[in-house]
């Protein structure tokens, strides 16, 4: 006989459990962040590793060659961005001088048009700087955290690939104890691996296409450092929805500093809006992933929650993580409503109205 507990008791237990999970994730972030990235990297390079092993290369060497190939690819991207940044930093004094001139003119305009004195504006800026100092400290801390991720990532990824069979067998023994559950576990594992691989490969292709489109548009408009800004915009675009909006600010700022008038800024915004339209309506649905189907509302919320929990790393990991949860929810009958809530399939009928219609027909 199963005991039925009241709703308030079940909801309290669920909220308490979620609170403990969030606290544990936050407290163990330094360990879980590199481990999460390593798991994604291991799943990403697993096909290459299997290909090396099919050529009779020992497992250790196959894993090493696969990880080296991935690290070389990401290293080449990092080298390109850093080399472009070097040429950008040589003109920093001129850009700083131009920024000061534009800011001074803006202060005078505010004083003349709005009547806010320059002294008062400076006071507000001082207060804002005082509030931004802790954020700068957090940013530096986040940078060191990113460096630790880069150092630990290949080690974790190597061990995950090396003990892959052991980990998979553990999952089968843990969740497939009952007869008939083996196929379900196999389906979840296969779909999860396929979703992450599809997401990661698609993400790389999307970033390449967006970088080309951004750079070409900025070159046509005549914005300085077009290739650098285009690549940075593509990297920011990896963060769903939010990154694309932030990426527009950088070329607009550079155009404001380096060019006269506001025509270039308007062209930049227009070009980036077109690129965002192409990205959101063609690249993301058809290239990034046809398997990680998460609706826009949940995507924005989970990206913001991931950022609050683990910073930029959390924003990047949030979409694959919620995609894995959706795959699991869709396979468990009790959790299917949650899977539907996360998905992007719009229901054609309102269940409440449908039930009322049936009651009227029955009466």
Give an account of the 3D structure.
The structure is a single chain. This protein has a domain at 27-136 and 143-162. It has helices at residues 7-27, 29-54, 59-89, 92-114, 118-162, 164-175, 182-221, 226-236, 242-258, 263-288, 296-331, 336-342, 351-362. With 363 residues, it is mostly helical. It is built from 13 helices and no strands. The mean pLDDT is 77. Helix content is 85%, strand content 0%. The protein is globular and about 75 Å long.
Task: Provide a short characterization of the protein structure.
This protein has 363 residues and is mainly α. It is 85% helix and 0% strand. It has a domain at 27-136 and 143-162.
List descriptors.
363 residues, 13 helices
Q: Overall pLDDT, averaged? A: 77
Largest sheet: none
Give the SSE string: HHHHHHHHHHHHH
Number of helices: 13
Q: Could you say which structural class the secondary elements and strand pairing correspond to?
A: mainly alpha
Question: β content, as a range?
Answer: under 5%
What low-confidence regions span 5 or more consecutive residues with pLDDT below 50?
A: none
Furnish the topology, listing elements before pairings:
Layout: H1 7-27, H2 29-54, H3 59-89, H4 92-114, H5 118-162, H6 164-175, H7 182-221, H8 226-236, H9 242-258, H10 263-288, H11 296-331, H12 336-342, H13 351-362
